[in-house]
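Hi everyone, sorry if this is the wrong subforum. Our group has a chain we'd like a structural model of before ordering constructs, and none of us has done structure prediction before. Sequence below.
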Amino acid sequence: MKGLLLKDFYTLLKQLKLYLVFIIILSVIPSMNLTSIGIVYAAMLPITVIAFDERSKWDQLAVMMPYTRSDLVFSKFLVGYIGVAVTCFIALGIQTVIGAITGQGFTTEQVLAVILTSFAGLILLAINLPFMFWLGVERGRIVFMVLIAGTIFLGMMSADSAKQIIEQNTITPWILLLISAASAAIINVASVLISYRVYQKKSV
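Answer:
Right subforum, don't worry. Here is the predicted structure as tokens:
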């Protein structure tokens, strides 16, 4: 698995450098909408890897290597998980530092919005990857664009929605996070299993 992740990392190396600059710029700007875009972009990283794999006929080479098909599938999910997690921590860290310098603290609603958007990014990843394994990147992009539009919209609305829910005392932030985390976990487990079955049936 470590070898697969290193392969994907080197595949994305040039893009990751630009991505890091992109995320830092978005995180410096005090806008949850921009942070949401950065998190959604992180969820796109596995798609780029799959596209490179398709062009280089990596699947045909991989069957001759000591990797199981479950390894090949789950490595793509790990790329997305790492990307979303790193983006979330960078955004929270930079905004916390900026808040300490300016004296304007990072509010609970803002922290909650970033974390909820991260869970939304993981759900986006989970819904999208089975289609990528099944249809391929070119045809899967259609599904992907629809999912991105919906996720960005949800991310842009999450801060206000979270604030209203908390103000109305209908649900605590911890319960909201727990529900979101559980939903993301369940959907991702199902997605990994579905992706594995799809990939098993794929002819290479």
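For your construct planning: Residues 2-201 form one domain. The chain has a mean pLDDT of 77.
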